[in-house]
Design a protein that fits this description.
single chain; 220 residues; Alpha/beta knot; 3-stranded mixed β-sheet; elongated
């Protein structure tokens, strides 16, 4: 709620008497509602007593492209709102310029918003095809896949990650579609040094985004 208020995204705010008492700094303009109404409006088992109606910004990829982005996270048909929200949070922490969603879950699904810990209000969330990202001039597109021909270590060593990059991530269950893999500049794998079969999608995304973030800031 703090992040939504800080971003001036809140149109209406409702709070229970208990929430008003606990969070006076947040609820000065809130309309009081009953505990029963708060529970009916909430998606969680133990609601916090704060409910907001927020405006949803709808930036386009053209808007993002005008700002000469250096780091983008692209989610292709994500099927888990928790994963989507976690990757949005990670992209925000890594300093990404935007997150692009190509199909799949809604980034403003309640579970995704909670998993993002407010990051949905910090950076542009764009809806659009991954193919359009692959067509951006000056941006190297990197498809994260366990079967990638190149490793992330190689790209860090040869300087690829220091330039503007867009990381493409598929769903946890199915990975990236073949047509998206074909459009990307590189298919990239995160090396598995131990015996684990694979990495969780959100964990792999964190490694990839931070590898680019560090390279772009001149850190190995």
């Amino acid at each position: 709620m703090r992040e939504a208020l800080a971003a001036d995204a809140v149109l209406e705010l409702f709070a229970t008497a208990d929430a008003i008492e606990r969070h006076p700094e947040l609820t000065a303009d809130a309309a009081e509602i009953s505990e029963k109404d708060a529970a009916a409006l909430s998606e969680t088992v133990t609601p916090q007593g704060l409910v907001a109606v927020c405006r949803l910004p709808r930036p386009t990829l053209a808007d993002v492209a005008e700002s000469s982005p250096r780091l983008l996270a692209v989610l292709v048909e994500p099927n888990d709102p928790g994963n989507a929200g976690t990757i949005i949070r990670t992209a925000d922490a890594a300093g990404a310029d935007a997150v692009v969603l190509d199909g799949g879950v809604d980034a403003f699904n309640g579970k995704a918003v909670r998993a993002s810990a407010g990051s949905v209000f910090h950076l542009p969330i764009v809806e659009g095809p991954a193919a359009d990202v692959c067509a951006l001039r000056g941006v190297t597109t990197l498809a994260a896949t366990g079967s990638g021909a190149r490793s992330i270590d190689e790209l860090a060593a040869d300087g690829t990650l220091s330039g503007p990059t867009a990381w493409l991530f598929g769903s946890e269950a199915h990975g990236l579609p073949a047509d998206v893999l074909a459009r990307a500049d590189h298919a990239v794998r995160v090396p598995i040094y131990g015996r684990a079969e694979s990495l969780n999608l959100a964990a792999a995304a964190a490694i990839c985004l931070y590898a680019s973030a560090r390279a772009q800031r001149g850190r190995s």
